[in-house]
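Journal club prep — side note

Before the paper discussion, L.F. wants everyone to see what a predicted structure for a comparable chain looks like in token form. Sequence:
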Amino acid sequence: MEQTIKMPQLGESVTEGTITTFLVKPGDRVEEYEPLAEVMTDKVTAEIPATSAGIIKELLIGEGDTVSVGTPVLTMEVASATDEPAELTTEDTKQPEQAAVVATVPVSAPPRNRSANGRFSPAVIRLASENDIDLDQLDGSGLGGRITRKDVLRYLSEGRPRQPEPATQVPVQETMTQVKLDVPETVTKPVVAPMTASTPSESSDRIEMIPTAGVRQAIASNMVRSKHEAPHAWLMIEVDVTNLVEARAKLKDEFFEREGVKLTFMPFFMKAAVEGLKKHPMMNSEWAGDHIKVHKDIHLSVAVAANDALYVPVIKHADEKNIKGLAVALQDVAGRARANRLKADEMRGGTFTINNTGAFGSIQSAPILNYPQAAILSVESIVKRPVWVNGMFAARDMVNLCMSVDHRVLDGLVAGQFLQAIKQSLESIDPNTYTLY
């Protein structure tokens, strides 16, 4: 019988999703729970799994299409409970009779994952990583030559790459449709773009048109909302972290051997921010119209850059963690963010955001609030420079901490006191006695 796979609900507040990649094509046999497509929402990137074993019949929408939750995405033929036991064949999914008279052209098998632009699904990446497989050595059987999970499993079982399928005959109309999707039409004369969204045919051959959807669209919406609704105020403080640099240098190797986690500077700044939030709870708040919400729990939102997207996973109850706990939690959420393996719930509920702009070499910034939170802290690059100390110049490791606050909630007094608390915490570190546990 025919089964329809619909756009799933990937989060409580998620209303739509964008199909970024189909991992199957009509005629493919799939097993239960096998990923069928990658879908991106404003919260997370995930996969749509098969709910039953069967054969893919038809893809109902195209890659790049954004549809509402519950919209049919594809159909597949599955065995019903009343069917006689029989093996499903690809003949069950052939086109209607009238399609058989359409002129056909030979289309050779897709080249080795070149048309996939080197992009693989999270499931494929995980499976290849677990088995130390070089994906460039495999030939993909998925749409556009994409390597699927089945290709990796076949490679493991046979010990060799899957051979490409022989040339097939496909309807001209189907070929033309795919060309229309994948190859923008080139124009030879200037065209004045209207105020509405432009289309590929309106672009110059010297301009790359990058569609905005999913996470990128969510970033744009949230940033615009934050700037429009929250009156930003900015502060910056300079901190001497010479002792912190020395303490980390002494502890990082032993910590890595013991915990298997790299000890970066970020957990130290997170710990100092948490201590500051305890002393100044108004910093852990948000504007709510006719009142201000002051959160008793401290849930740190941590900005993580991943390719062309920005994720802000949340480390819950950060005030209950020591440096070791913060380091482990940070590596976990950052790694899964870059692998598109975060769950929607892991990016909700933050009360204060910390951002490591220093990782990109920045020494000063004016961060935009992670709305509706009332404050965000950016940690800049640690720079060694001469500083006047005790009547003489000395080489010291210095860092700028830049903060933006919602001026409806916070004034300069409490914000300045909060930064001073962080400064005192960091500068009071003793390299000889500091402990991570």
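L.F.'s comment for the group: The helical segments are 122-130, 149-158, 172-182, 214-229, 242-259, 266-279, 323-338, 412-427. Keep this in mind when we get to the figures.
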